[in-house]
Specification:
Layout (H helix, E strand, L loop, with lengths): L1 E7 L12 H10 L2 E7 L17 E8 L1 H13 L6 E5 L5 H5 L6 H9 L4 E8 L2 E5 L8 E4 L1
Parallel strand pairs: 1-2, 1-3, 3-4, 5-7
Antiparallel strand pairs: 4-7, 5-6
Helix pairs in contact: 1-4
Length: 146
């Protein structure tokens, strides 16, 4: 069974993710994917979420706002992780998620992620920090960074 690292920020937006955890797990289990959760907190550095990621992982699912997604992208690069990144927008602005056509409906977004093919997005670097950019809306919800 393939695994998915599920990194979520319970403080993003209005704590939207907390009421949807069971739905996310159920949808992933239906696709025979095992969710390995990591809850972002002040007490546990986000870097620890990447310790166990190996070839048994299918993708990383990040739930949070633009700041969370940015941190995950930078940690993926610093850990040389070449996995697709799926985004669940639960922050305030969610600029990148809006560009890929995500809505505020967590279940709908999960279904789209689980039924999509990863698309390549641009990866930029400014002052030693990475950022992702979408040149054109592909309608897919998971991405590979180039």
């Amino acid at each position: 069974m393939k695994k998915v690292k599920f990194i979520y920020n319970p403080f993003s937006g209005e704590n939207l993710i907390l009421n949807n955890l069971d739905t996310i797990i159920r949808l992933y289990q239906e696709k025979n994917l095992q969710i390995i959760p990591f809850r972002i907190s002040l007490d546990t550095p986000l870097e620890r979420s990447f310790i166990d990621i190996d070839e048994t992982y299918d993708h990383i699912l990040a739930a949070g706002g633009d700041g969370t997604i940015n941190q995950v992208v930078n940690l993926m690069k610093s850990n040389n992780l070449d996995l697709p990144l799926a985004v669940l927008p639960v922050g305030t602005a969610n600029d990148f998620a809006k560009l890929i056509g995500a809505t505020s409906d967590i279940e709908e977004n999960c279904r789209k992620i689980l039924n999509s093919t990863p698309k390549t997005v641009d990866l930029g670097l400014v002052n030693d920090k990475y950022f992702i950019k979408l040149v054109k809306n592909t309608g897919d919800f998971s991405c590979e960074m180039n």
